[in-house]
Give the backbone structure.
Amino acid sequence: MGTKSALLAITALTTGAVAWMVPGSARAFFSAPLVQCQAVTAPAALSGCGSDPLTSGIASIDDEGDLEVSVSGAAASQSYTVTVVGADGTIKTLPNLTTGTKGNGLLRKAVEFPLGKVGAGNLSLSRAGETQFVTGIAIEASGGVHALADFRPELVSCSAVNVPGTITGCGSDAFKNGQVQFDSVDGDVNVQVEGAAASATYAVVLRSGATDFPLCTLGPTTSMGAGQCTASAIFAAGTIASGLVVLTRDGADQAYSGFRVSLKPRPAPAATAGLVTCLSATFGNPTSSGCGADPLNSGSAVLGKKGVLNVSLNGAAPTTSYEVFFRPINSDGTSDLDTGVAVTTDTSGDGKGSGTIDGATAGTVGSGVFVVKQGETDEFLSGFTIK
């Protein structure tokens, strides 16, 4: 079996797991453990594998298209090429992952896949011309200390796939939602679909290259196209598997495990910080001169990209009015800028306030701290607490 086919099977399997995390909803999420390519034995061994070590790893793609890949105990101080290998062997290259001196690495890329992208396949990490790690299924060994993550991809319609590319020869069935879950502790599998063909029966297989390993039979579905199938201990303890979960009907592939980007990304704030009491600050040579003594359980100051500042207080002085200022870096407090945001707490000392800061427009760059005052007295500052 070729490397592309092997990786393809793995990718599809990983992707389907995402939707399972929120059954019966439109949310989608692909999440799967990374396993050593050379350790895969089911449904078939993979070719072109390297021998890099790996303690653990996981890869995920959420419904906003955010990508996250992490490894622990891999080869030290190395760069891995990360790819999506599709159901037909097509490859899409993603950003590289670089490990540190202990072989640990993290790749995190917001909106790597834009809205409307539908993927089928597995993620692969390669180095030195060989496939080192792939997303797959890892069943806990007998007497094992702990299992790796479950394999949880979404099921997507074959005809809807556009990452890494479109697929020919698909069946015509649509799938509103679908999920796959392989339990890493006992090897059980659960497959669910919504909005599939009505009164239809699907064969569910794990595909690796030319090998189709039967998992379960799903159906007949309801008049609304809903159905489920389960199977216990599909793989024995200690099995490492990788492949593409495929739903077939009428001689055609109808759905694959993968991911679907269904939500617009949430706008990231321009700045966010916790609030601490002025008196409690001890790091960075602060001075308590001019500090008030109001209590505070927790608080935050979040500045949005459009200049809107949201401030929240919890456990401050009850029934008290506060005003929020911005203190530029290296300022002694004489040049504080009034943000125009006010917070009035209730009888429990909780309160929220928001407003648009004048001058905080696109292209503005600022450095300093937010200061919450009662009158002329500093009560709370943006900062951090290490516990």
Summary: Residues 1-27 have pLDDT under 50 and may be disordered. The chain has two domains: 3-260, 271-383.
